[in-house]
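Here is one chain, start to finish.
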Amino acid sequence: MSTPGPYPSYPDGPFEPPRAAPNRPPSVDRSFQLWLANGVLGLIGFILVLTVGKDTFRDEVVKTLREGGTAYTDADIDAALTIGLAFAGIVAAIFFGLYLLFAFKMRAGRNWARVVLAVLGGLALLLNIIGLAGGGNMIETIVTIVQIALIGGAVYYMFTKESAEYFDAVKRHP
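Its structure:
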């Protein structure tokens, strides 16, 4: 009995070497930095509202309970305030986490994240401009103007020519 010879090998084909990942242009990095700056500014603002505006929230809870004709105690008010602030904190944490996810995915070249940020940015611009028309104190006005500049710049840099080429290249890259 003879042993079979070596099995024939598959012929080498014209394989393409793996392509290098596309280089991220500075405009995408600038957009990412502006999104992060706006997120941090929003987070700081939220924390300040929770700490400084706690009395305002308490007054609103009392007003709501009074208008409803509900009998209440200080413990009821404190419980409602705590639940409201905890809920607001949870919603803010989820929103901030998603915001960061979209920013990091946009930076990685994911076009869907760029579209989501553009839509959310457009809505934020609209709401901030409407907020400016409503007035407010000097600090709120300055923060709103800074947010408009940050969001406007971030959206602009996401859609420059070099950014568009980067998103297209990432889409074609395996």
